[in-house]
Amino acid sequence: MISTMLSGRRKLFLTKTHTALQNLQRRINNPGADASFVSINSFTKRVNLPDYDVIFVDECSTIDNRAMKVFLEKMRPDTFLVLAGDTYQIESIDFGNWFTYAKDIIKTKGSNVELVSTWRTKDPGLIELWNETRNKGALITEKLVIDGPFSENIGEGVLNSEIMDEVILCLNYDGKFGLNNMNSYFQNANTEKAVVWRDWKYKVGDHILFNDTDRFSLLYNNLKGRIVQIELFDRRIRFTVDVEIPLTEQDCQNDGIEFIDIIDDVTRIRFDVLDFEEEMTDEDRKKTVVPFQLAYAVSIHKAQGLEYRSVKVVIPSSNAEKITHGIFYTAITRAKEKLKIYWSSETMQEVVAGFSVDTSRQKSLAIIKEKLKQ
Prior knowledge:
Organism: human gut metagenome
Oligomer: single chain
Largest sheet: 6 strands, antiparallel
Keywords: ATP-binding, Helicase, Hydrolase, Nucleotide-binding
CATH superfamily of the largest domain: P-loop containing nucleotide triphosphate hydrolases
GO molecular function: helicase activity
Structural class: alpha/beta
InterPro entries: P-loop_NTPase, UvrD-like_helicase_C
Number of helices: 13
Protein name: Helicase
């Protein structure tokens, strides 16, 4: 709406993740011929920047303090700035608490507007749960009752997968219900033949997430994919992968990727990973890194900005005291259609009881306000 009202201005749309960038591009009608859609990390690395009349920054809670400082130093002081985000989610892993305090510091009339609608789901039950959790309402435990629509005791249900676009969210990497064990279980349950490469094994059908590497610009961090073919050669392995972004043959050629086909809403691509050799060029050394990780299960922190048709959150009793309000809210808001939390009734009560107001935030806010007066 704000973008439409400001027609005729040169606009820049910034987000932290490419998932959010794609969502913006789909949802912004008529952004203008001169509009740009860029990740904030790419923006802050630029030396020369075009002049923009309006800059929209989405996913502000995931942007760290240092990146935001660089961004503010690069923009013109008279640029109209629109900041959007969810202060209830986890703060940036790279220390990003600036957005948490922004609404309490910027008090200009009309500068703070709370949006109550969501684009991720139309499911009324999910929306009610998200709202109750965000507001730390009195009905949270009623909505999360065991064997209700959203909660179940930890058991076989965790391991039964019925939807392709599904993820298990864990807090820890280790332990019985940790990320590593979950990924191992689901890969072992995959009946395709394992292909061993170095210390890892891969199977057709494996769910993957791409990592941040120097090799590919198109295959960005947290891009979802699925392995559809694996070929093992002398000193190299070849992966054919379906990725959830539209790519053209020219795009792929420019990025050193083999374009195969467009199938439904995914692009099928192919690339090789080389075995390491001491005499390699720097360019070939980049090709020795497998650019993705297994992602049947993902950490809650890494899941920021991602969305899935079905989300299963596993919270054993040993993790109860580590599940903050922000971590829990981030986890349950990754679901588009189905959400199930696996825990005991006692763990649920302990986690919800921990949603009390964090007094450290008020202390930090007082320090920031005092600093701004100086």
